[in-house]
Batch of 4 targets.
Target 1
Amino acid sequence: MRAKITYAVTALVLVFYFVLVGSRGVLLIEAGSPVTVAFGVAVLVLPVIGVWFLWKNTQFVRKANRLAAELDAEGALPVDELKRTASGRIDRDSADEVFARRKAETEAAPDDWRSWFRLAVAYHDARDTPRARKAMQRAIRLHDAGTGPHTGTA
């Protein structure tokens, strides 16, 4: 719940920032000189990109959470079996061991969104965020396509 509140507050702050920057862009365009119009258009591009990025990220998080809820309902969410250091950080060797199992599981069932979801979690635990995101995107695509075990289509 705390993560959702943090995300919502951050999104609201970003939207406020986008509105503020966008209004400055409009003011520059309204000034009417070629230089201010050019700067105004350039300034307006930033909030447009920001809103697009925020929207795509929010959609990704919502879809990943939907998959997590479905796995939870099936009793198939990955269990946290990682060893931790005294400070609470994940032990690297432990993360590598779990990752190797998850990778083998995914290679054995490449069309199963569940194995890709679990692989994404293993990548995240191994601190490989770009690959975690790509694995989760693959899980989402497979889920939305309705392929894999338990779906009745493959």
Note: Residues 2-74 form one domain.
Target 2
Amino acid sequence: MRIGELSERTNTSRRLLRYYEEQLLIVSARMPNGYREYDERFVDRVLQIRGLLDAGLPVRIIKQILPCLDKPRTIHFPDATPEMLDTLRRERDRMTERIDCLIRNRDSVSEYLDEVSKGRRPTPEPAPAET
């Protein structure tokens, strides 16, 4: 598929896809006319990359762990250093904190929507007293 189709199917800009390719996260074949041609498997790969970026992982870490994520539940990481494992643990813990924050925010929005849908206005929290 060409870059436009990959862009549409993943809701990712062409510019961003070229960046992923520049960073060696995805690869394309070149057609005789110079157009990029992507394999079908890159639809899932791009979605996976976007999810990892949205979770806050930097490209340098994604590049290292992406080969491990090719098959569900198959992890093969022969060159993992203690430093890399520590980095991944820190990133995992940071993602957990973000998830917890998102859950709290989602629950607050749900409570607000519940109150509004009952026809009641939510009671605003009092402003802190000035000292």
Note: The chain has a mean pLDDT of 85.
Target 3
Amino acid sequence: MPARDHFHSVIRIGPVQIGVRRDRHGHTKHSAVCTADRCGWSADYSSSSAAQLAARTHRCRIAH
């Protein structure tokens, strides 16, 4: 059974939320997830600045 992700230090940039978590190996990951309906974009980064840059440049393909 996989361990549950516990996010902390969650911030929002536009429709994207960024949270810090530890992966199954104990490494810190910064996850960026678009919260727009049907977008489905998400990515993990090793640094906060990379996740924030991705959040600022993310463009949903879903028409608003």
Note: The chain has one helix and four strands.
Target 4
Amino acid sequence: MATLRVFTDRKKSCYNIDSAKGSKVLVRAYFFYGNYDGKSSPPSFDLHFDGNRWATVETLSDQLVFYEVIYVTKTDNISVCVAQTAPNMSPFISAIEVRDLDSKMYSDLDLYRALMLRRRVAYGTKAIIRSTDDLYDRIWVPAVNAVGSRTSTSIQLATNLPTTEVPIYINMYFSEVAVLDSTEIRSFELRIDGKSSSKPFIPVYAKAGEMVLSNETASSRTNFTLATTSDSTLPPLINALEVFTVSDELTDGTNSDDVDGLVALQREFDVLGDWGGDPCLPAPYSWYWINCTSGSTPRVTALHLGSFGLSGLLPDFSSMTSLEIMNLSSNGFSGPIPSTISKNKKLKLVVTDNPDLCTSGKSCKTASGVDTSDYGGSSSSGKKKSKLPVILGTSIPVFVLFWVIAGVCALLLHKRKSEAIAAGNAAVQAGGGNKPYGNPRPAQMQMAANNNNMAQNMVHDFMINVQVQDQQEPVDQNNQQNNNEEEDS
């Protein structure tokens, strides 16, 4: 309790704790002000769990206060939140504890409601009992000895209930502390406002017995007593007592599809990751950058993300089917708008001041003149895919074809000149000087023909390759990458 964390910049601040869905848990939150800020002004604020109201925390200058709730989890996550209720009163928290309970404990508990601890006492002790033998780590506060002095004496049970009537759940624990002879009997009953409300109870020596009171409403004005039955020779006793109020029906929380969409958004952009707890509940403590419908399972209807400094590609919000407004202005988004957004006719989309965001279809220019048609994926880490390979794929064959043809022509010209000179020299030597060039020899003629055929074949093959390439669709590197990723997964 020597340390705490204070929250000064947000209406609601939360801790998220992993749990198993359907677990019965005890959650405890501690608050020790200790005048940490030197203002001698212990604050008051609200406490929530899993989107449900828990309590109004009233801290004290020099005393520890704690609050405890027992319930069955609806998801695999427990959230504990503090929420500011008044200006200049910053919520804080000193510690959080979570304990898994046996499913048979508090078995009369409605699975759709929670037990809020009001009092847990052990009678006849002088110190707090927090036994290492108790797997559930319950804290028992000492109370005066609770054994009547004579049979006519009843035991008054202090409950610490609120002034208004609320549903209650009370556990009473009994164990006979003496070995009784055959003539002795200890028998008593619970009375509420003087009326019998239980069957006679006879505690057993050295064994624990339990009496549970549920499905009742009561307040601080309600009178709970243990009184002897007519056949009892000994006064009543009680060893321990737990008093709870019963919550309203627990919420299922914000629609799970909307929660999934918001979680994906938080994973994409770190600046949004600090928001925790239920996005919409309890009202009016929703995240300030969303709007929600009312009801036990609210839907998210608006995202107000203007001027958040977000950048990269827009995620897919297809799971958030109730969105009506999406304000993404003054950020650094780039690439195309997902079709699930652009084709949503009921969605009002605001994307001003995002110069690199493509808004006019599959292939378009951004405000900065960059073609974004080949953006791929939905991650902000995605990068623009260059169209250079496609351009080169069409321009290089024409360029090479030109130089190949030119080279072949030069080669043929050179060969013909060489052959003509050689033939002329041969003719001179053979007496054929009346013919300036003469006739080439058969072997030289064949070589020239072979060279000419080889060049023609090269050009022919090259033209066929170019035609084949022109007939093929250009490969989309983004689609190829996505297909590979799908195959890998």
Note: The chain has four domains: 1-105, 114-250, 256-358, 388-471.
